[in-house]
Amino acid sequence: xxxxxxxxxTLRDGEQSPGCTLNVEEKLEIAHQLARLGVDIIEGGFxxxxxxxxxxxxxxxxxxxxxxxCALARALPADIDxxxxxIRGAANGRIHVFISSSDIHLMHQMRKGREEVVEQTRAMVxxxxxxxxxxxxxPMDATRSDPDYVIELLNVxxxxxxxxxxxxxxxxYATPEEYAALIRKILNEVHGIEKCIVSTHTHNDLGLAVxxxxxxxxxxxxxxxxxxxxxxxxxxxxxxxxxxxxxxxxRDYYQVDTRIDTTQIYRTSRLVADRTGMVVQANKAIxxxxxxxxxxxxxxxxxxxxxxxxxxxDPASIGWPSSQLVLGKHSGRHALKQRLLELGYELSEEExxxxxQRFKELADQKKEVSDRDLEALVAEEHRVQQETxxxxxxxxxxxxxxxxxxxxxxxxxxxxIITDADTGTGPVDAVYRAINxxxxxxxxxSEFSVKSVTEGIDAIGEVTIRIDHDGSSYxxxxxxxxxxxxxxxAYMNALxxxxxxxxxxxxxxxRTVTP
Length: 515
Ligand code: KIV
Ligand code: ZN
Known about the structure:
Blueprint: E1 2-3, E2 5-8, H1 24-37, E3 41-45, H2 51-63, E4 68-74, H3 77-86, E5 93-100, H4 103-110, H5 114-131, E6 135-140, H6 147-159, E7 164-169, H7 176-189, E8 197-202, H8 209-219, E9 223-226, H9 240-249, H10 251-254, E10 256-257, H11 265-276, H12 297-305, H13 333-342, H14 349-365, H15 371-386, E11 390-397, E12 405-411, E13 417-423, H16 427-439, E14 444-452, E15 461-469, E16 472-480, H17 483-505
Parallel strand pairs: 1-10, 2-3, 2-9, 3-4, 4-5, 5-6, 6-7, 7-8, 8-9
Antiparallel strand pairs: 11-12, 12-13, 14-15, 15-16
């Protein structure tokens, strides 16, 4: 059976989702989890775009030895040199060079002629090849390009040493039949294609990213570019978990497989959702909250008799937690540690102590603490540890006959305690205004949502917000059984991201074009 290589671009294309900024530590943490998941290539970032991206790719190259680490570069000398520098220490590093191939891009964005782009491709793939022999080339917007011109560019790239030819459906325009036809044309017409791997890279603007990737694989592509939870620019990229589970579940049909350890999928999905703040919709295939839930009586009846009546995948095959053990206020540290380990969380002693403390507080409020609650606790604990400004205390008075008033106490990065208060149109507004009086970074709250982690009146509420500042947006999350506290935590989380990004961007090399 043929193998399809999984090229994960969560940390590059995925991170281009609006509001989803990851710091270097978060990128590394996700990269290590991607390695456990068994991806073949990690696209760690776009090193020229920022010092943070450069450093993240460099550290991945240094620390992760059994997965290829890839750095993205426009077909420009400075980009390629920077990408090469970032992967210099890798056991098997790759440089991914891209240039637009569609007339729309050439005319309106690059203002270059076709011949000029051919020559630029020739020179820049050659330059990259001088640094390493693992070169991927992408003609951007390939699906809206003249197919013969795409072949011409690919011929040049292969002649200069590219060994992976990636075919981006950059704006999610193609249909599966069209995309498969383009892949077949490339496999039939590019000179030297037998030495190369053809790769899919599909965006989800029409909801066809996974269908197009699978059509590309059926047409002969043997690398698939995808992201965890399908995150990415606009409507996102093809979702890794959907492609992998489609190939695994319908192996009889596709006749190909990947080397992904599917039992790591759930854990990876939760980690990415938490660190990026990009919430997974409940009805999302494979990893959504409802993916394995059965509501209708007929379905429940079937499932109880035999799971195969209404389930095509075993939830355990993607690592879905199936705990029968429910923790409560009498559970000790050991039981908590054990359950967290089963859920895939290996905490240090110090982290365990802090999480245990929060667990006890929660268990005092809730009779039963579920796996979902534990995940929310660990995520909250992790967020708070990353933050430089900390929320120490929040108190609110409100009601239908009073002016909502909030008092907040924050700890600044130097450890000083600062208290302030304000009023607002509602309790959350009052809390945010009080925090603003202390931190003083102007921003606009553009999204606010609250959902409960589990059922029941005593459930933990998870608040997700987005704030905008200076043309960028930042997501923040917070969890608590008190939704005002969760809202305050979410705001502190978003503000901390904004502040640390502002600090990094003072040293930033301008991110001119984001692919
Ligand atoms: O969508 C796209 O065209 C890209 C390229 C850089 C491969 O992300
Ligand atoms: Zn893309």
